[in-house]
Structures are given as C-alpha cells and as structure tokens.
Amino acid sequence: MRGGAHGSEGQPTGKRGEMIVVCSAKGGIGRTVTTVNLAVALTKKNIQVGVLDGSFQFGDVALALDLHPTFTIKDVVDNLGTMDRYTLSSFLIHHGSGVKVLAAPERPEYADLITPQVLDQVCDLMLQQHDYVLVDTAAGLGERTLQFIEKADQIFILTTLEMSAIKNTKLMLETLGVLGLLDKVQLVVNRSTMESVIKATDVPDILGVESTIYIPNDYQIVGQSLNIGIPFVINQAKTDMAKTMFKLAEQLISRREISLFKPKQAGFLQQLLHKTSKGVTSMF
To answer: Is residue 76 within 8 Å of residue 90, measured between CB atoms?
Structure first.
C-alpha cells in the first residue's frame, strides 16, 4: 500500500489518484496514441482523467487531441511559487471527452526548465484532483522518465514485433528489474497483428513476462486519428483497436485502488548506479 501525498509540512493532503506511465524503449512505438485513447476510454466510466505530456521536447498529446494550448507546463514553472491544485487546474486544457491535459512546452529548449522539483509538485497536484493521471513519456529511460516511473502505480511498456523494439524492450525490462519495479510493469504489444518473423504470442516468452496486452495493427485508423486529432475510441468505437482500449480501461477500473503516495528515500538513478556498481550485471 502506498503512503499519502504529503504537503511541505509533511501532513497528508488527501487521497491520491492512480498514476499510469506509458513508455517504450524506442520511438515510433505508439505511446501517444495509446495514452490519449486510453484516457478517453476511461472517461466513458465517469472517471476524472488527467494527461501529462511528459515528452517535454517534442510532445504530441495536444496534437493528437486537436487541442491548441493556451498554457503549457512552462507556464506552470513560471508560476510555481503560488501553485496549488486549484491554480494548476486553470493551466489544464479541457478536451470535449472530459480529459484534462497539461501540455508540453511549445519550444524544445524549454524542456530544461522542467526540473525534478517541478515534476514532483506537478504530479502530486494533478493526482490530488484526478482519479487517473496518464503520462506520455519520451522514448527510453531518461532522467525525467525515470522520475515518472518512480511515482507510477502502473507502468505500461509498449513494444512491437520489430527485432530492434524487442531487443531494446528486453534491456528496459532488465533495467527495471534491477530497480525492483517489474511488479508495476504491464507489457503492451502494439501492432500485434503486423506481419513479422516474430509471432505476437512468442513475445512474453522472449521477454520473460507473464501478462501481455495485445493491440491490433491498423495503420489507416491510427494515421487518420492523428491527422484529424480525434482519438479512434470516439469515432471508430466499434473497431478492434477501440475495443482493446475499452477492455483495458475496464481492467484498470476493476482493480483500481485509490491509494496514497509516499516518496522513496533515493532516486532511481542513484539506485541503479549503486546496484550496478556492486556487481549486478549491467544492462548497457
């Protein structure tokens, strides 16, 4: 059971929503499409859902939802000294589905302004006012992605049937294993029906995981969805891809536990460096 979200004086600030981090070992895997469609699917159950675009240099969450941000996380940084949950809500963009989005900065150079302290405060404030906060991350295991993973209740790791994706995903899983995080990981095989020498059903054995979610392949639906900025769970709700997202949303809600967050003592980068320096096999 996770501890409580704490204010600056260490006092509990109330219940905490569940944080789901969507990541992958390489780019072009479908993180943003998965994030926005799952977020919209969750709102169908009258769930309060927030999305944080954690790809701070080149985030596309707003584009995928056809939103035109008035504010981004950079504006939150500029007003961090007076930020509380109510103030933060005024920086969120409201999508017609009910999803609320904190957009990535409009310029890649602004990503450097998003410090670990900013992320901690922003995530905690968003978790206070949403049942779920979904985070779309940049590819790989950068410092900010690791920080999101540290806070996550569940980590969705996306891969495809491409050899390079499988190889890099295995390395990512091994790294998270070193950090003791595999119990939070859910593997998602995207484009699972694409033609490949690797069969989708072989992926769990290759990667050493027990539970796997399979999202079918449909380039036309995904491409159209991104180009017009309408998640396919809205206008293509009867397709197999949309049904998969609704099923995933149902699974999340059925086992949902609103729990409270207690920060760990050491950051993940320090844990990883410490463990590998003591003789744990390096993953790199």
So the answer is: no
Backbone angles phi, psi at 268, to 5 degrees: -70, -35
pLDDT at 13: 46
For residue 220, the one-letter residue type is Q
Q: Which of 137, 139, 135, 190 is nearest to 25 (CA)?
A: 139
- Give pTM, 2 decimals: 0.85
Q: What is the mean pLDDT of each run of 10 residues along the chain (284 residues)?
A: 39 72 96 97 91 97 97 95 92 97 97 95 95 97 95 96 96 95 95 93 94 93 95 96 95 67 53 56 38
The CA-based angle 100-223-133, given to 5 degrees, is 20
